[in-house]
Amino acid sequence: MNAAQDLFSYRKHWAHKFGPAPVLPMSQEEMADLGWDSCDVIIVTGDAYVDHPSFGMAVIGRVLEAQGFRVGIIAQPDWRSVDDFMRLGKPNICFGVTAGNMDSMVNRYTADRKIRSNDAYTPEGKGGLRPDRSVNVYAQRCREAFKNVPILIGGIEASLRRIAHYDYWSEKVRRSALLDSKADMLLYGNAERAMVDIVHRLADGEQINDIIDLPGTAFIRQHSLEGWAELDSTEIDEPGAVDPHPDPYANIDTSVKQKSEQNKTSQDGQTVVRFTRNLSKHPREKTCIRLPDYEKVKQDPVLYAHASRVFHLETNPGNARVIVQRHGKRDVWINPPPIPLSTEELDRVFELSYTRQPHPVYENKNIPAYEMIRFSINIMRGCFGGCTFCSITEHEGRIIQSRSEDSIIKEIETIRDTVPGFTGIVSDLGGPTANMYRLACKSKEIESACRRLSCVYPGICKNLDTNHNPLIKLYRRARRLPGIKKILIASGLRYDLAIESPEYVKELVTHHVGGYLKIAPEHTETGPLSKMMKPGMGTYDRFKKLFERYSQQAGKEQYLIPYFIAAHPGTTDEDMMHLALWLKRNGFRADQVQTFLPSPMALATAMYHSGKNPLKKVSHTSETVLSAKGLRQRRLHKAFLRYHDAENWPILRKALKEMGRADLIGNGKKHLVPSWQPKGTTSTSGSGAIRRGNRFTTQRTGEEAGMPIRSQSKGKQKKVRGRSRRDISR
Question: Fewer CB within 10 A of the terminal residue: the chain, N end or C end?
Fold first, then answer.
């Protein structure tokens, strides 16, 4: 992995003389109060502006401010005209456009494609204040407002749409967001490093079209770049028999094409290295992988699955190569992932001059997402779990980036001393996963060469350091702070890692569980678990024993909250039936039901769309993966999770009879549903009275990742409304 310039080592832009703003301005009146005549960078976002390090626009804005740039914010603009996009005037350097902390489509639609009535990132939770595919719409309006200003798109929505991707809401394969947005460049992943470099280079007079060397960026070109060799993805991972597709080198004499290296003059007169079969002598850093064209993956689901597989194998910043995909007459070039921030850099990012509150323009209105993370602290980034339905790994990467213990303690003290309403309870010390803090590969050399999609599946890698002692030490130091009454852990726990450290489980259960701890088995059956890349229930049972033992030793009545997914690819009706039986045997009743939502670019989405398994080599004869796609079957899978809801009994009785399991219909303890129906509950839809709580997604499935449960203990029913950790991605 190449070394990167320190994020805070750049020479500051001349406007640093203005100093940090109390809050980044959202109007020209605020700009005037700061003595500004213009903004250098304007960030357009689909979220309300909260000046807090859990909100992407605040982090990017404050990081650029620390470089000496004047940054303005246009939050939740009216996209129906260009007026709102001109409210701060013309930016001197560029626009930065993001949909916000959530994908706009996930934010607005349920897994059944129904419009949500609320938006957690909007004042008073009001829905409808952002357009569908916000990145595309916002960038187009910026272009209309100021034609010659460079436009950079980023955030999780752009990140997950950097290549041709299956779009669940339109049920078709769409082009890269770069083309539909008409932006100049796409930044994916945590984009501080790329954003700082680009803005400095633009400020120094470099043209946006000349910036092609930055990790974590994507751009468009008409022709191949000089000095680059192209390796066809089908040479790396043969997709099997597919429909013939046009040979991009058909105009080259075949005898010449087979040579180990072939130069060809492009239309603009430059000499470029074209596709070769033998690239052993060509520099790896000048070798790109050409995926099947957009037009091909759009038509052939097998090629789509193949492209998804190859793409995911090129996601380690230590060994990833450039990816190229043709869209019509233009190529989308995707550079390798961004180089992770060091601990020192990450500390400085989180220690910038955030107010940790919403912008004053909102006049103390309630912003639900802010209320949830108001007293929580993010201690790390990334996830090496590799769950196929998850968007965290695809966005933030597999390498864990951890803050220092001192920096985290300093932030707790800042919350204690400055944030209004703090009662002494820290609601979370976590991140995408609660217990991956400072976990990493034992060898940097092995890490840089690794191509595993997960460090913990099918088992924990022998090269992974699973030492939880730094996290235990952090917990102990944090709860000893004066004025701190309780440190809760609300982020999802990776229990297969936790059981490697019983001392950690004891520490967690004894001091940091507020009665309930959520974990995510996701399913009980081998079929769907193998497609999710999740451990089996044996691991869950081992953790459960530890949890119960240490809860008893602490004299506390505490409960596990397991989350499950309905209708994930690879899940049969029988799988859902067995899960329902497991729930009943263990006394669990689902309060909310979460259904798999195919988020763009996820491996599980490739399974859903193609019917193939991209975890293995893909061909027309390779493993077939079945998915619940029809409304009736998806509702049935949800109904199995809510087997106790009388509204679901008719559809379950019908399904059980069709499955030859009428023996599960009856009034005994071993039966799943009764043979009788309460008066007034004759629904056959199977949708049930599904209540959605105030959960804010981490984009694990593109929507919610599983389901919270209600446990039954000693004849009493304990109801739990699950709330997952917010997305802190940019």
Answer: N
